[in-house]
Design goal:
Keywords: Actin-binding, ATP-binding, Coiled coil, Motor protein, Myosin, Nucleotide-binding. With about 90 residues, the protein is of the alpha+beta class. It has helices at about 5-10, 15, 20-30, 75-90, and strands spanning about 35-40, 45-55, 60-65, 70-75.
Length: about 90
């Protein structure tokens, strides 16, 4: 570690700009499954981690890091139908 890096990390405002090296290492070593883990909007923190528990049609149920169960409507299915219809229309031209 260079002297310049250590001087920045000693600044009292640094904790609000970046995590410590130990916190970053701990976060990066946690397993992340893109089919199961996601981020959901949160009024207090912006986004929080969540885990997908079930999907039925366009509805996705997740459990947040705080333990709250939340249901979302996933609009990706409609987007795919729309894109497929555009491609079909372009082939007809």
């Amino acid at each position: 570690m260079s002297k310049l890096e250590s001087d920045h990390e000693k600044d009292p405002g640094w904790q609000y700009l970046r995590q410590t090296r130990e916190q970053m290492a701990a976060e990066q070593s946690r397993p992340f499954d893109s089919k199961k883990n996601c981020w959901i909007p949160d009024a207090e923190e912006g986004y929080i981690a969540a885990e997908i528990t079930s999907t039925k049609g366009d509805n996705v149920t997740v459990v947040s890091a705080r333990g709250n169960e939340v249901c979302f409507h996933d609009g990706r299915g409609m987007v795919l139908v729309f894109l497929e219809s555009i491609c079909l229309n372009m082939e007809c031209c």
